[in-house]
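Reminder to self: tokens first, then the designed residues, so the page reads top to bottom the way the pipeline ran.
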């Protein structure tokens, strides 16, 4: 009997220590989960490459519903969108109305309503944060500079054709493509390429892309201002190019665990 009690106590002792170790490990690795989701701008946009969709099209509606369902399954507690923080009160005022009546919508690119608002509504997210920082970006002048050289012009043309091919994919396929690591890094590399465009003894490309980088790092700063805990699950919904920059920022910050977006996005 005495031997039996010793065995039982030993099991309980090691079990408690095992649980304690697990708890400590969980606390020590308590990084904030972030799903950095790249979206196409579905309507109103000044982007050079856009994928405006007919939102009344049944297949488009079906694909958007699948995207939303995938994002809801991630169970976000916080959602960040491509709006400036000074619009947060307005955005959330509209969102509260949207929860009750989905005809209340933002008059901005439709992914904010159809994807961000709907995901937030179905996930019972309490507040939506804008993290954008709008700045001028002279993209056309960079393309003009690139077109002065045959090889550079060919590279730009191939990139533009690649963008067009992706924009012409069915919506669900497009969103899956733009959230691959390969596509994001291809876009990131293209902007780095544009940074090398210049005339004699000048740095036009570097200066213009530096402004774009400045916008993205300001957006990241806005994101870092959001009060978060290790129990939060953060969904960021931005244009795909911003997402590429955010991958670099977030993956090099030990505070965050960046989820593989494709693990949370339905393929069909």
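Designed residues (268 positions):
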């Amino acid at each position: 009997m005495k031997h039996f009690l010793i065995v039982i106590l030993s099991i309980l002792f090691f079990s408690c220590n095992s649980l304690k170790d697990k708890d400590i490990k969980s606390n020590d690795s308590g990084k904030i989960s972030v799903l950095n989701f790249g979206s196409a701008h579905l309507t109103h946009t000044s982007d050079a490459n856009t994928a405006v969709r007919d939102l009344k099209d049944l297949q488009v509606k079906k694909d958007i519903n699948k995207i939303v369902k995938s994002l809801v399954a991630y169970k976000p507690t916080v959602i960040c969108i491509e709006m400036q923080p000074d619009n947060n009160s307005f955005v959330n005022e509209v969102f509260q109305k949207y929860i009750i009546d989905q005809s209340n919508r933002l008059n901005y690119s439709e992914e904010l309503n159809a994807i961000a608002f709907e995901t937030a509504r179905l996930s019972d997210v309490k507040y939506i944060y804008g993290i954008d920082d709008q700045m001028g970006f002279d993209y056309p002048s960079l393309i003009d500079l690139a077109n002065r050289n045959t090889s550079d012009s060919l590279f730009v043309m191939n990139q533009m054709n690649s963008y067009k091919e992706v924009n012409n994919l069915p919506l669900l396929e497009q969103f899956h493509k733009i959230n691959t690591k390969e596509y994001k890094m291809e876009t990131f590399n293209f902007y780095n390429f544009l940074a090398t465009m210049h005339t004699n003894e000048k740095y036009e490309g570097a200066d213009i892309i530096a402004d774009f980088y400045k916008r993205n790092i300001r957006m990241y700063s806005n994101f870092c201002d959001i009060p978060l805990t290790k129990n939060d699950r953060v969904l960021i919904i931005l244009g795909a190019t911003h997402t590429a920059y955010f991958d670099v920022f977030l993956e090099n910050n030990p505070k965050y665990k960046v989820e593989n977006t494709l693990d949370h996005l339905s393929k069909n």
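The CA atoms of residues 77 and 124 lie 8 Å apart.
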